[in-house]
């Protein structure tokens, strides 16, 4: 029934990915709208870190997948969640920042530019930090 041998590395990697996906799905299913955005920020940071590692290791396909994932998080998640009608200057500024980050991610991908990836991470860090900081206030207000 159970073998005394270990699964190939590729299988172990697949199992780890499945475990991670289940954890993410559980977090998303139980998350507030505020927490969902926080998860997007976390996913962005993770994708940029993976892209940087793949770039250094000269793993072009992995780099492209990771940068594409980061760009989709920015465009389809963070940018799409902005309320430009009622959000005022903050929403407009974030919209412009996210557009710039998307452009820099594309540049980083096309030119294998780790500094452009680092710039994206640096630009997103204070937004991510501010979002996390207001979390307790949002949670208290919602209750």
TrEMBL record:
Gene3D superfamilies: Flagellar protein FliS
Main location: cytoplasm
A Pfam family per the record: FliS
Protein's UniProt keywords contain Cytoplasm: yes
GO biological process, one term: bacterial-type flagellum assembly
Alphabetically ordered keywords of this record: Bacterial flagellum biogenesis, Cell projection, Chaperone, Cilium, Cytoplasm, Flagellum
Domain of life (superkingdom): Bacteria
Cellular localisation: Cytoplasm, Cytosol
Any GO CC annotation of this UniProt entry: cytosol
Recorded family membership: Belongs to the FliS family.
PANTHER family given in the database record: FLAGELLAR SECRETION CHAPERONE FLIS
Name the UniProt record assigns to this protein: Flagellar secretion chaperone FliS
Organism: Piscinibacter aquaticus
